[in-house]
């Protein structure tokens, strides 16, 4: 059994602004997790969060692909999962479409983690990221 987690959202902001939120480490930390990310193919980095049962709180990643303002692909391993996450940006009426796909959830424990991540993604992509984008847009207009 292999599962894919897919999220699609349209944000009323230009693609360049959404891209910044994906690749600037300090911005990424504000809506996702603290990290030592660098937007360079081959860079290995970690996200850090609260530990839980079977999870030390560290997500080990590598930048696999980077096409400015279009696509970011990362390996994503932590606890019982070893997956790949792809962030794709595209134009949408009045803003930017972000599609996030996380693939490779293999086995029952990984499937359970995918369900927990799906629940958390509503808060992350429905509240935290849009709030950050709104703040950045307001700062740009000052």
What does this structure look like?
- The protein is α+β, with helices and mostly antiparallel strands and 142 residues long.
- Helix content is 35%, strand content 40%.
- It has one domain: START domain (Alpha-D-Glucose-1,6-Bisphosphate, Chain A, domain 4).
- The protein is built from 3 helices and 6 strands.
What brief labels describe this structure?
142 residues, alpha+beta, Alpha-D-Glucose-1,6-Bisphosphate, Chain A, domain 4, six-stranded antiparallel beta sheet
Present the secondary structure layout.
Blueprint: E1 2-11, H1 15-23, H2 25-31, E2 44-48, E3 58-67, E4 71-78, E5 81-92, E6 95-106, H3 108-140
Antiparallel strand pairs: 1-6, 2-3, 3-4, 4-5, 5-6
Helix pairs in contact: 1-2
Structure annotation, total helices: 3
Form type: globular
Strand order, sheet with most strands:
1-6-5-4-3-2
Number of domains: 1
- Unreliable segments (pLDDT under 50, ≥5 consecutive)? none
Largest sheet: number of strands, sense, barrel closure: 6 strands, antiparallel
Q: Helical amount among residues, as a percent range?
A: 25-40%
> What is the first-to-last residue Cα distance?
50 Å
Number of strand elements: 6
CATH architecture: 2-Layer Sandwich
Which radius of gyration do the C-alpha atoms yield? 15 Å
């Amino acid at each position: 059994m292999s599962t894919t987690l897919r999220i699609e959202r349209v944000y009323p902001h230009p693609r360049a602004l959404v891209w910044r939120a994906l690749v600037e480490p300090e911005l990424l930390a504000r809506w996702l997790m603290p990290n030592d990310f660098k937007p360079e193919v081959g860079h290995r980095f970690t996200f850090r969060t609260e530990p839980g049962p079977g999870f030390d709180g560290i997500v080990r990643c590598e930048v696999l692909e980077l096409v400015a303002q279009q696509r970011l692909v990362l390996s994503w391993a932590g606890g019982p999962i070893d997956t790949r996450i792809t962030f794709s940006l595209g134009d949408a009426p009045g803003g930017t479409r972000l599609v996030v796909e996380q693939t490779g959830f293999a086995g029952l424990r990984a499937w359970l983690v995918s369900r927990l991540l799906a629940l958390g993604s509503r808060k992350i992509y429905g509240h935290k990221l849009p709030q950050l984008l709104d703040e950045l847009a307001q700062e740009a207009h000052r």
